[in-house]
Design goal:
It contains 15 helices and seven strands. The chain is α/β, with parallel strands linked by helices. A five-stranded mixed beta sheet has the order 5-4-3-6-7, with helices on both faces. It has a two-stranded antiparallel sheet with strand order 1-2. Strand 6, helix 8 and strand 7 form a beta-alpha-beta unit. Helix 11 packs antiparallel against helix 12. The termini are far apart.
Length: 408
């Protein structure tokens, strides 16, 4: 190495040290001035500077440096917005000319984004090529993909997601179950695929996503296998199961959790009410009567109000009265649990956010080539949400030790 090259190398290292020092000074200024409110801006500065240093290493030379080791040239920046847990970041992604480069910090990306890219790319490779899918892939990936590239990306991602799905569980007091459907391609046909999701609430009041399962049906065997897998991973201590009246769930629930009370979702029961109204029955009045049952002070009062409601509608709508008498008690088991917990336990609405988040990602892919592709994306989405939940405050407040049956 000549002295000139040594001087160039020393100059480049000094320049990098100055950049790092300037970066840290800027970060400290932001944090001192704005505290935790400036965390997003601080991370933004760090990521932008790290990407520029990484580009310098990839090029083999600093900006404007003349060096025989230079592999390419800087080619400006591309603006990119990235949503993170500390806020939205405005990033300036370095571009290059003459050498392939993309910052590793962005290349790793979020799990759900990588899963969505893998799902869309897999559709493309397997021949499910429509203009819409091609446009989505180009927007997300920015390049054409080969089957080998997809295979490598999928293998790395699946290993991480599988580890999370199979992690050990602990004691769970409340188990909340729900199912939704997505479209997948099977043997040249498009069919609906059931996606089962389980959320648990621990004794300390914190919630966690326990797991998920994908199958072509929502039959009893699917639910039973799913619930069995949760128990095999260590879930125990369940005091109440909350769900809608899903097909196949009742028998599976009884088989795997004999004696555990079931709280049927009051929100879905209220919607089902409209399917049993007859001419001459006011929908608003019937809804108000049912809400009074839900909002009763205790189980005794709820049973009394339900009995009055059945007697009220029996003469004019006997089928409605029979439905009320048979189904509404399934939504009253929550009264046997602490008053502080009832509001969050009487419905499965707490899972609606999960469903919205899953839908927001799956509607981009539109159609999945197989069950594994759907499982991959759904796992990635739920894994990210679960990590956010671990940093939030308790989902359920601490309950009063006085028995719920003696309190209003």
């Amino acid at each position: 190495m000549t002295r000139k090259h040594e001087r160039n190398g020393l100059s480049r290292r000094r320049q990098q040290r100055k950049i790092r020092r300037r970066c840290w000074e800027a970060v400290m200024d932001v944090l001192v001035e704005h505290g935790f409110g400036g965390l997003a801006r601080a991370v933004e500065i760090l990521v932008n500077e790290a990407m520029q240093l990484e580009r310098t290493a990839a090029l083999g030379a600093a900006p404007y440096e003349r060096s025989p080791r230079r592999l390419g040239y800087a080619n400006g920046f591309k603006q990119k917005r990235l949503k993170t847990r500390v806020g939205e970041l405005e990033l300036a992604v370095p571009k290059t000319r003459g050498v392939s480069f993309y910052p590793s910090a962005l290349e790793r990306g979020s799990r759900s984004e990588r899963a969505l890219k893998a799902a869309v790319a897999e559709m493309y490779v397997q021949g499910v090529t429509t203009r819409k899918v091609a446009a989505v892939m180009e927007e997300l990936c920015g390049l054409d993909v080969t089957s080998s590239q997809v295979s490598r990306a999928v293998a790395l991602l699946d290993e991480e997601l599988s580890t999370w799905r199979e992690r050990e569980l602990a004691q769970i007091e409340y188990l909340v179950l729900d199912a939704r459907y997505e479209k997948i391609r099977v043997g040249g046909s498009v069919v609906s695929c059931a996606l089962l999701v389980a959320v648990g609430i621990a004794p300390d009041g914190r919630r966690t996503i326990l797991g998920l399962s994908v199958s072509l049906s929502e039959a009893e065997v699917h639910w039973r296998e799913f619930l069995a897998s949760l128990q095999e991973r260590g879930m125990h201590g369940v005091r109440l199961i909350v769900s809608d009246d899903h097909q196949g769930l009742a028998a599976a629930r009884t088989a795997r959790f004999p004696g555990v009370p079931w709280q049927r979702c009051q929100f879905h029961l209220a919607k089902n009410l409209f399917d049993h109204l007859t001419p001459g029955v006011s929908p608003s009045e019937a809804s108000a009567d049912l809400r009074a049952v839900w909002n009763a002070a205790n189980r005794v009062e709820a049973d009394r109000l339900l009995s009055l409601m059945v007697k009220k509608y029996a003469p004019v709508a006997p089928k409605l009265a029979a439905w009320l008498e048979e189904n509404v008690p399934e939504g009253l088991n929550v009264f046997d649990f602490p008053v502080e917990h009832r509001r969050r336990l009487r419905t499965i609405n707490g899972l609606e956010r999960l469903n919205r988040e899953i839908k927001r990602r799956t509607r981009v892919a539109t159609l999945f080539p197989n069950e594994a592709s759907l499982l991959r994306l759904a796992t990635a989405v739920l894994m990210e949400v679960d990590e956010e939940w671990q940093t939030e405050k308790r989902y359920l407040p601490k309950a009063n030790p006085q028995p719920a049956s003696t309190r209003s």
